[in-house]
Amino acid sequence: MSTDKQNISWSIVFRIAWRNLWRNHRRSLIMLSAIALGLWGMIWMTALMRGVVDQMIDSSIKTLSGHIQIHAPGYLDDPSIEYLVPSLDKSPALQSLLESDDVVAWSQRIRVPAVIRSERDVLAVTLVGIDPAREKGLSFIGDSVTEGDYLTSVNDKKLLVGKKLLERLETKLDRRVVLMSQDPENNIAERGFRISGMFDTDLEATETGYVFAGLETVRKMLDMGPGISEISLLGHDYRELDGLLDKTRSSAPDADVRTWIEKDPYMGSMLAVMDGFVLVWFAVIFLALSFGLVNTLLMAVFERTREIGLVQALGMKSRNILFMVLIESIIMLLIGLAAGNILSWLTILPLKDGIDVSSVAAGMEFAGMSSTLLPAVKWPDVLLANALVLVLGIAASLFPAWRASRKVPIEAITRVWQ
Amino acid sequence: MMTSENNNAVKCRQLSKVFSQGELAVNALSDIDIDISAGEFLCLSGSSGSGKTTLLNMIGGLDVATKGEITVAGKRLDKMTMSELADLRLHHIGFVFQAYNLIPVLSARENVEFVMQLQGIEAEKRQQDAMEILEQVGLAGMENRRPAELSGGQQQRVAVARAIVSKPELILADEPTANLDSENSDKLMTLMRELNSHIGTTFIISTHDEGVMSFARRLVKLHDGRIVSDEKK
Amino acid sequence: MPFTATYPIIVTNTTLTLAWRNIWRHPRRTLLTIAAMVFADVLLVFMLGLQLGQYQMMIDNTLSLFSGQMQVQAKDYLDEPQMYRTIANADPLADKIRQETGLQAVSPRAYGFALASSEKRTIGVQVTGVDPAFEDRVSTIPGLIEKGRFLSSISANEAVIGSTLANNLKIAIGDELTLMGSGKDGSIAATVLPVVGIFNSGNRDLDRQMMEMPLGSFRDVFAMGNDAHSIIIAGNRNMADVYSLKIDGLIKENRNLRLHDWETLLPGLKQAIQADFFSAWIMYALLIILVAFSMLNTMLMSVLERTHEFGILLALGVRHGKLGRIILTESFVLAFTGMTVGVLAGALLTYYFSINGISFPGMEEMGARFNIPPVITPEVSLRTVLPGPLAVLIATVFASIYPIWHMRKLRPIEALQAA
After folding, report:
1. What is the mean pLDDT of residues C324-351?
2. In whole angstroms, how far apart are CA A322 and each of A264, A395, C390?
3. Which chain A positions have a beta carbon within 8 Å of B89's beta carbon?
4. Mutation site for B-interface testing, chosen from A9, A12, A322 by largest number of B Cβ within 10 Å
5. What confidence tier does C371 reach under pLDDT thresholds 50, 70, 90?
6. Cβ distance B115 to A6 under 8 Å?
7. What is the pLDDT, as a whole number, of residue A40?
8. Rounded-to-integer distance, Cα C184 and Cα A287, Å
9. SS3 content of chain C, % helix, strand, coil (to 5)
10. Dihedral pair phi/psi, residue C112, rounded to 5°
11. Cα distance from B82 to chain A (closest Cα, Å)?
12. Virtual CA dihedral for B161, B163, B168, B171, nearest 10 degrees?
């Protein structure tokens, strides 16, 4: 028997595959466009959905949640002044953790339910005493004051009120309002505030729900001693908080320490649902593509029965023929993917400042979203989309390729003789 | 290269092929006994359905016998696997078909190089051999044309060039002139005869064209799957 | 036309039969193309059914919780809910609405704000005055009492409050709450009420902020006379147009009154549904386009490989327009076959789930947020079953325009040469 083995003759296999691809250029271009469009759909839609979830999470984290919160045990069930965390100078371990590199930003707050009264109306709000400088970069209030002035210090005696609340109270900047809350002795504490600034956020509920004053001013108003309601802090990545959570718990052993996901399980589940959605969406698009891909290749193989018979008669082995069809498909997939990636990049780039969806702002708010959509391209998603199309595309081509390589016997060759 | 005993290129013993079409069995070949020596220029003649194509298929290792023995280049074909048959075709047999001989996406030179490429011959030698052989068959200057840009006669010449370029022991041609006019047909047959004389390669050509038969040194006539005459000229 | 006898392809009544035979010349290709359409159809039917089923539930559950189908309010109250913007003599109007529409689910309400103090806590609460005789027909809150009971009569001196609120106020059934607020006329409104029930609606805002008391007592405390802030109407949503016509007739003489439907009352709900629907259709459109590409490829192949055949027809004198119609008929027959199978398969699958319900991980949290139960039952109806497959049909038939346009340039001689 013959001793030399016929390995894959890559150069000839590749050359024939490449030229075969362009024999019916219309068909190949249609298939290429479909692959490109499919990939574009995967990347684009995912970027949009990820953007929505990112924004919801960002908005949730910025609405005073932070990545990790520290409260006195019991506070979350009953957010009253009764449950306080001791001031930081009494817990040096926590203080040094907050100042370490693990923490990007942190702040302490007094946070109590209150009632706000203007000349025209009375409404329930949450009064938050803040350290104005520390809130910048941590929560929304640091950069949402659109009219008037932001607070200057913990002793600032003025008040920040949301735009919508201002309307509801039928009052204006620089007017006075009265805030009432309960002091530690269960007496009603009352104090007049001049409205220093108005904040404007995407969510109406935030605008009507909170008013902000200097931390020490609130402490005086409530006639309370040392201690604070909460400490909120930011780590480096909202998905990777386990390490920081452990450290925080060990430096504040008596406190109730939670991450944003524990506080807002809806957001946590959104993240999981999103990952599932991405996979399902990819699968759906790929399946829609695969019908066309298999069809195109089967047609190509069918039309070339005679040629396949010829090269087989000339002594080309099935393995080579299998690869000939596979490589044709791989080239098609690669070009389609390249085009799809370029198309995605070109269509996402102009949108990096966001898509305005304010026409359905109330609906977006209902779902906890803002009225501007920011597509968020995540590299793992892009890689997954590309890899999925390529790998499953090759898998889908196996059947036509196998058909081609099995065509041998007399059937294909008979067509050659005649 | 040639290792066969008694100088036999092809040896058939009681070779039979039965095609079954549903209930019906057709004896395409019945008990063929034939020895073809190396260097012969043999024509297989007979009307369509006489079994000449089937015989060529068997000798070429493209089809398997129902019964009997067949030895080509000293090897028992009836005992080989598909993959071994592919190797045999690649290294020992050249083919010229009636039509659709060439791979449409490859140029004349690339078509000639095709078999050598499968054999793993290096690029430089391949190119040199291909150019030489194309010149020999009178196609110098046309090496870069694709099959669609060549006439029928030119296409068949490329096919012959490809069949002989790797110097196989045996060349099988099934009605190679069927699609050619008589002038081109004569040219092609003359070319094959010359190659037969110069290189000594065995040629087996099937045909029902009297003109082609006149080129034969040995003429075997088939009828209903049996050899009815076998004469040397 | 003399050649009709020899070439039946152009006889109109056999065109369909011929188209049918032509598409089955390549069974595998045709099957794959149909499979692509069926895949898209089934997905679209199912997803649309799921979506509409979910919206239906979201709307029903949200509306039945508190806001009702529609509400009569004083002009401007919706945008600026000030206490003085009332419906004068609301009870007789409510009665008239009951008579006119035949609905019993018509209930007047009044809203106010007060500081509620328990022994330990003081919290600002939203106080709602309701008519216990009718409230359970327009709101599910009376049925969601977790502890104690709902309000007994329109003039009783008692209150029910949300569970989170009860927790924050640290009170139990039987404890008293002191209310301090201001009445319609600006006077001080103050009273002491025992809490007789605690409700758990699942809605965060209601559970945290709301207190309900009998409308009669509310009117006394807040100096409301016989007024109310809104009249809630609930009923079969399909009849909404009829009801609103009748109610409009009743209130049109009073220029101070307005009738609002749920879309106006809860713009967020409607827009959330629209936003979801819109983003879903972007995805569906993409899916449909991909399937159309499949169809385009198949029809183009089928046309290109028959160039010679079409050449013969052209040589026989058949016009290009007729060829175009033949191709169009074939693509329509192919698309229609796909649609028929797709609609049937999609409807069956969706029907199965509409009986058995679907749940997926994460739905419990989402459900709590959007007032939907953790099991969805998709809707199977013409409006869920047809739009998707029809869109696929139109897109795929549309995809055969390119092959037809391509054929338009075909000359008989060239076509005949392309054997």
Report:
1. 92
2. 54, 12, 39
3. 313-315
4. A12
5. low
6. no
7. 93
8. 64
9. 60, 15, 25
10. -150, 175
11. 9
12. -120
